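Justification of resources, computational component.

The compute hours requested in this renewal are based largely on the per-chain cost of generating structure records like the one below. Each record pairs the submitted sequence with a full structure-token output. That output is archived, and it is also reused by downstream analysis tasks.
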Amino acid sequence: MKVKICGITDADTALAAVNYGADAIGFVFAESKRKVELEKAKEIIAKLPSEVLKVGVFVNETVEEIEKIANYTGLTHIQLHGDEAASISEKLTLPVIKAASIESNDTLEEIKNYPCEYLLLDGPKGKYRGGNGTAFNWKNINLDRLKEKKIILAGGLNPDNVEEAIQTIQPEMVDVSSGVETDGKKDLQKIKKFIEKAKGSLTRRISI
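The structure output for this chain reads:
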């Protein structure tokens, strides 16, 4: 099971997450309490191993600005977390992760044909487009509608529920931000526990 730790703003946390087994690190360039400055993102990305995905999170940004930021900082993937049309994704030169706030199966129908490498299924919208710590009902959606897509599961995940989430949805990757924070800051012990639970869940599911 792949794991993405999102909302990273400092190198020590990024490197610790990678050391614990994170496969992707997310950097928020949209309005958020976790927004990272371009210089800082570039500095962190330069220290990360080449095989780790470096994901930039954008909300309703222009293609030109996304490409500019991606090139400057060294991103490998673009996460579109707003109301971006399919044409935006098609114009980007890097692989795209399209996030969608899941309300019902109707949402799945709306996004199933979106051109992207991954579909990220997130919880309901809050103050910000992501990182609100709210899960959707995993058991009430029909993922057969997305069987041609690679799924990233996000929204309300934490070390205590990530195993159940993986067993229910069976995504390619899980994505966490607020669920590994304490008092609004990334908590290394929670990150470690989350990754351990996520990485171990598939083995346990197969052995049952």
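The chain has one domain: 2-207. Residues 203-208 have pLDDT under 50 and may be disordered.
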